[in-house]
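discrete fold record:
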Amino acid sequence: MSRATHGKPFITRGSGSSGGGSLSGGTYTGAQDFSGATVTLPSGIVIPSGAVLTTQAAGDNSTKGASTAYADAIGDIRDATPLPGVLAETFDRRGGAASGASAGATGVCVAQLIYLRKGMVISNLSTMVGVTVAATSTHFWQALTDVNRVMVACTADDTTSGAGMVANTLRTQAIATIASGASATYTVPASGWYYHFVNNTATTVFTPINANTGSAALYGLAPIVAGTSETISTGPPSFAKTFGAITAVAKIMYCAVS
């Protein structure tokens, strides 16, 4: 049995265990009725086609990964604590440590692995600034690439001396360009790993909020988790662009898309 209401994505009631069933793919906003229970999803959560959902008490992960598994989106919500409006982040912010070393040398492109889901509509790229903001900055911008470092979206270049940064605050920039030209959004074509690049050319490069120090050797296994790429001491590159190879580092910067 299935139903559709006022053009909204419909739910296909499956034959799984009690309270279970399969979902049709689509974007769900607000509370959705599922097998007699109400499942509340934050606006913009994308349910992958064929995902399976079970209703159970909040915080109960006992069946996650079993035959009656959560929909991917629900698992993400319960296992992480994203900021309002954030669609994906480089690590759960509960793992953030104190402000660490600078975000690479001046002009160095710093890359962070991030998982994005098909259908996400991304408008902004953000990175968390620590205690030290950029000083005498000439360029600050962010970009998204696929896992092969091919650029798919980038922001405009902030050429102000302080790069619009405030200590211990998320620095957000709007997407300005995608491969097809000027655009305020980028729609993710396929679920998978992507890279969030950050570039700051300045006399004093800002210090980011990082995850606790890990192992560069472990982070360096494919796909590389975090690292430095080529030096670009100007604004964002033009399309088509493939960034240089990434050299792994032992710290993951907090970056997010919204």
Remarks:
- The radius of gyration is 20 Å.
- The CA atoms of residues 135 and 204 lie 5 Å apart.
